[in-house]
Amino acid sequence: LFFCVLISFPLLFSSVFFFFLMLRRPPRSPLSSSSAASDVYKRQGVGRREGSRESRMPSKELWMRRLRVLRRLLRKYRAEKKIDRHLYRALYQKAKGNVFRNKHNLMEHIHKMKNEKRREKQLAEQLNAKKTKEEACRNKARKQELKRRRKEAAEAQTAAVAAKKAQVAAKKAPA
Fold it and tell me: What are the tens digits of pLDDT across the range 147-173?
């Protein structure tokens, strides 16, 4: 009898243990298939939802996520010297003011502003070159005008001297 109890006790224990285990919790296989379906965005329709849209995914949490992403990108660009501190500050304030919808939108804006800045710099350089060229032309024209006036003045002076000599000679000469 004792031997019989010893043999059947492990069997008894295992069957009782699994019986209580089965009573304690429901099977996981339907839940795992349901979670697998929810992983591919199935079974999330209106009838399956419990709780408002705000309670399921708070708009504040979405805002915080988006703002953190934008600020992280700005910090990265500033560290990599892609933007200077002035542009960083301006874009930081714009991000806070809900100007950018997402990271891609912010990146486009940064590229646009950098291209605009580069274009302004290029135009300023072109304008400066044009000014220096025009100034050189004006200086050259002034020098030529000055040279012409001096030449005319010298000719007028020689003509006046020649006229004076002729007048003096006419006075001295007997008539």
Answer: 999 999 999 999 998 988 888 888 887
Q: By three-state DSSP, how is residue 42 classified?
A: coil
* Residue 100 φ then ψ, to 5°: -100, 130
Q: Does an H or E element contain 153, and which?
A: helix 103-172
Nearest CA-CA partner of 70 in 42, 38, 94: 94
As a whole number, mean pLDDT of residues 31-43 equals 73
Cβ contact 44:38 at 8 Å: yes
DSSP state of 48: G
Would residue 81 be called left, alpha or beta, if left means φ above 0 and alpha means ψ between -120 and 50 degrees? left
Cα–Cα distance, 106 to 112 (Å, whole number): 10
Question: What tokens were used for 167?
Answer: 């007048």
User: Does position 5 have pLDDT exceeding 70, yes or no?
Assistant: no
